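To whoever is on call:

I kicked off a structure prediction for a single chain this morning and the downstream step that reads the tokens threw a length-mismatch warning. I double-checked the sequence; it's 270 residues and nothing unusual in it as far as I can see. Pasting both halves so you can look.
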Amino acid sequence: MNPISHNNLFKMLKRKLKMSALVLFIAGSVFAGNRDRSGQAGAGELLLNPWARSSGLFGLNAANVSGIEAMKCNIAGLSKTKKTEIGLAHTRYLAGTGMSISNLGIAQNLGDVGVLGVNIMSFGFGDIPITTENSPEGGIGNYKPSFLNMSVGLGHTFSKNMSAGLNVTYVNEAISNIRASALGFDAGVQYTSGKRDNLHLGITLRNVGTNLRFSGDGFSFNGSSPDFAKELTVQSRSEKFSLPSQLNIAIAYDFYLDEKSASGGGDEAS
């Protein structure tokens, strides 16, 4: 057995340190937002992905996602659209509840400007019985909540190894007599490195924007003055709530084995 030279030993230690640093980086936890408001964010539908492929991977492909799916994962991947891409998706959400998600996405390559994408996602809740204090069992009709998200995004390739994107989403939640709306912003970056461009890094910050606050006639009710001399219309106040902001960091590495490739990915979200 040949003795290990100092140079070879140094290279081995350096390689192990790099691997250890990579493992620590992937396993690290990142917290975003105000911890005092944890669990108080609304508009949870912004965290749902209607596309089967990237949803099945739970966002693990944020480092190398491409096309219209990138608008719900990492907007930077939108820049990889070659020409025109159109996608439709329909999901039965929580089977047996009557809830569903419908989604339409369109992406168009605009040349040097980048790739423009439009995504519309709506939720169906079926018929929900109306209940009141006087009719707690219902029987007085049904109502249908309306949840609609409309997004416009732009992805641009800055170099062979780097692309970025920006996405704006209009959020609207409503029933017949109250509604709330807000604007959310997403930003993402994808970076490729390695001898064969097989190391991919993706970072995206999603759902940072304005607060929602419900308003409408549903917060009004008839009351009486303190002396019961006259009837008054009383307006209840509603509390504002923030969007579910999320920071996502993903790493993917392509292994080339006998001219066949396999991809492994890691993801950290908060």
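Update from on-call: the warning came from a stale cache, not from the record. Cleared it. Sanity check on the structure: The longest helix spans residues 6-27.
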